[in-house]
From TrEMBL:
Its cofactor is Mg(2+). Monomer. It comes from Ananas comosus. Keywords: ATP-binding, Kinase, Magnesium, Metal-binding, Nucleotide-binding, Transferase. This is inositol-1,3,4-trisphosphate 5/6-kinase. Belongs to the ITPK1 family. One of its GO terms (cellular component) is cytoplasm. Residues 14-208 form the Inositol 1,3,4-trisphosphate 5/6-kinase ATP-grasp domain. It holds the Pfam family Ins134_P3_kin. It catalyses: 1D-myo-inositol 1,3,4-trisphosphate + ATP = 1D-myo-inositol 1,3,4,5-tetrakisphosphate + ADP + H(+); 1D-myo-inositol 1,3,4-trisphosphate + ATP = 1D-myo-inositol 1,3,4,6-tetrakisphosphate + ADP + H(+). Its EC number is 2.7.1.159.
Length: 222
């Protein structure tokens, strides 16, 4: 699903949207260090479960700081290059034609000193849960500023078309030190909407639009 974002090559005066370099690992943890080296990925790496089954474990992220620790990870998983983003991500909810966005706290930035002095795998359960809302936090404006709405609407429209989905959400980050460089780090189809303030009205409007669209088609064909 993320590859569809990369294929879009979405860039205009509102900003550029890309995905972090990533690698899918399906088996044999001992082969991970060599696979990462061959793919040219740069540490640290975020490890995400490949399978989503609704369990707590499928929401767990891990941050691997060194080559040796990579073999301690548990496939199947996806490895993504970590991009510093000020510890804030944007959850973009697509509900039919509607695009809504909220801020959530995320993994903290990693500086060069931490990368040199840390080793091993650090695990983070449910990083961007509803309890981690950053909408009312006192944040630096360079971190807290929402992505431009025209950019989000273009991204939502193109992904609706490519994925064939009307209900999904996008986890997006802004690269620290930039204003218009964004990365989509995850896409969730039919996500839980309880994290979205006022979701009842958004969802009701979406269902009504489906009924109205079906009614109009019937009139046109009668």
């Amino acid at each position: 699903m993320l590859q569809d974002v990369a294929d879009l090559d979405l860039a205009d005066w509102n900003g550029k949207v890309d995905i972090p370099r990533q690698l899918v690992i399906t088996k044999d943890p001992s082969s991970i260090p060599a696979a990462v080296t061959e793919a040219g990925l740069t540490l640290p790496l975020v490890a995400k479960p490949l399978l989503v089954d609704g369990s707590e474990k499928c929401h767990e992220l891990a941050l691997a700081y060194d080559q040796f620790s990579l073999s301690k990870l548990e496939p199947p998983l996806v490895l993504q290059e970590f991009v510093n983003h000020g510890g804030v991500l944007f959850k973009v909810y697509i509900v039919g034609e509607s695009v809504r966005v909220v801020r959530r706290f995320s993994l903290p930035d990693v500086n060069k000193s931490e990368l040199l002095n840390n080793s091993g795998v650090y695990r983070f359960p449910r990083v961007s849960s509803a309890a981690a809302s950053a909408d009312d936090a006192d944040l630096d404006t360079s971190v807290a500023e929402l992505p431009p709405r025209p950019l989000l609407e273009s991204l939502g429209k193109e992904l609706r078309r490519r994925l064939g989905l009307r209900l999904f959400n996008i986890d997006m980050i802004r690269e620290r030190g930039t204003r218009d460089r964004f990365y989509v780090i995850d896409i969730n189809y039919f996500p839980g909407y309880g994290k979205l303030p006022g979701y009842e009205h958004v969802f009701t409007d979406f269902l009504l639009s489906l009924v109205q669209s079906k009614y109009k088609r019937r009139l046109a064909n009668s």
